[in-house]
Design goal:
Helix content: 55-70%
Number of helices: 5
CATH class: Alpha Beta
Number of domains: 1
CATH superfamily: Ribosomal protein S6/Translation elongation factor EF1B
Shape: elongated
CATH architecture: 2-Layer Sandwich
CATH topology: Alpha-Beta Plaits
Structural class: alpha+beta
Length: 215
């Protein structure tokens, strides 16, 4: 193995500047693909599953609330014991679902804390450089649009960082290990001057509140 590596090293040493640049760019591309496959893609899949679960819980809650209202109207006309028991059961289910939704919401970083959290993470690694940080328009999750009941909003920021691949990877891993979660909508990595890479990252959190603190 050492002899093989030595031969490759000699070939690189004997290569022209243009050939060396192409080798470094190829290595950079491979590293980007490895990072995307090992960290970014699995985390994005996990985030989509959690968002889908929150949306499903909201739909179940609205369905049960509608059933309670229907039974309550029927009870007013014919207040039998069976209707009262069913209403009581459904209200208990509503309380349980609301508790579950509230617990899921506590897992997210609040919109007001997003900028502070991102900047605190940057201060821990002085080798990273913040190029840009801007807020994105608040959007409602598609699954809750036009639906009655509580709506879920997505609050996002786009930040651009520069640094080595390992430092950018460490930053992403640190974000993932936060006690309250931030989620990624998009991550784009590019190389303009090896070994410095640029990462453009869209980070967002979910909230039942549409209000947004402008960055």
């Amino acid at each position: 193995m050492s002899a093989l590596l030595k031969r490759y090293a000699e070939r690189i040493d004997n290569a022209t500047l243009r050939e060396r640049v192409l080798v470094f760019l190829a290595a950079a591309l491979i590293l980007v693909l490895v990072i995307n496959g090992a960290l970014i893609k699995p985390l994005q899949d996990s985030q989509r599953r959690l968002s889908a679960q929150i949306t499903l819980n909201e739909r179940e809650l609205r369905t049960i609330q509608g059933e309670v209202q229907r039974l309550a109207r029927a009870r007013d006309g014919d207040p039998d014991a069976r209707s009262r028991e069913r209403v009581a059961v459904l209200r208990a289910e509503i309380a349980a679902l609301e508790g579950q939704i509230a617990e899921e919401q506590r897992r997210f970083t609040t919109p007001q804390r997003m900028r502070g959290v991102l900047e605190e993470m940057l201060q821990r690694d002085k080798r990273l450089r913040l190029i840009d940080l801007k807020s994105l328009p608040v959007t409602e999750l598609a699954a809750t649009q036009g639906q009655a009941g509580r709506r879920v909003f997505r609050h996002g920021v786009e930040l651009t960082l520069a640094g080595s691949y390992l430092d950018l990877y460490a930053y992403l891993a640190a974000l993932e290990s936060l006690p309250t979660q931030l989620y990624w909508g998009r991550a784009e990595m590019s190389v303009s001057e090896y070994p410095v890479a640029t990462l453009k990252l869209t980070v967002y959190t979910l909230s039942f509140d549409q209000a947004w603190l402008v960055v």
